[in-house]
Amino acid sequence: MIKVLYRDKFIIAVNKPCGMLSEPSPTEESSVLLETANAENIPLPLPVHRLDRNVSGLMLLARNSSAAGKFSALVSERAMNKEYLAIVHGKPTEDSGIYKDLLFKDSSCNKSYVVDKMRKGVKEASLEYRTISVKESEDGILSLVRIRLHTGRTHQIRVQFSSRQTPLFGDGKYGSHTNRGEIALCSARMSFVHPFTKKSVDIRNLPSPDGYPWNLFADLFKTEMFDESILENQ
Known about the structure:
Elements: E1 3-7, E2 11-16, H1 32-40, E3 46-47, E4 56-62, H2 65-76, E5 81-89, E6 96-106, E7 111-115, E8 122-137, E9 140-149, H3 156-162, E10 185-193, E11 200-204
Parallel strand pairs: 4-10
Antiparallel strand pairs: 1-2, 2-4, 3-4, 5-9, 5-10, 6-7, 6-8, 8-9, 10-11
């Protein structure tokens, strides 16, 4: 079931369930686009961005091609603030900071890698993060981390944290050794100046506190956490 978080005549923001495709594929019709069209009784919307199938949370859809172009430009020009919550194995070395890497995507296996020099197919990736809480669990030390993307590379959050020996919980592709649950990554916030209305829009969405390992940190879930700067020195 698709939950609508925000709507106007230009865009719809929905909470994408984990396991659902962002858009239809040749082998699977069910997707966020189709489910939203059916739920809202509207023509098939257009994706402003995409989320991996096994990632949940806030996803922005455009109601027409003009809106798709304007909002996609916000993303490409880094004029849209996109934040995530993740649970990682271990604890980041610093409580907050910026990760900058060079990423290469291997399309043959749909996997990205951190590399040490620029070459064909390599793109710069940057994000900032803040550790919210660290807890002991039956899977060892787990940390709840808030992340703000500066760039939107394939599997960026997953590979950047994995390269620092703190892979996302449940992400076997990038180093997690547990198969309990889905990847603990949730698209939790988008804020921007609306290109049509010129008003500030701030949409927030927290992960469900019911499932493991999110339930370990359920007492900390509050949208007000986004009112604070990610980096402690800002």
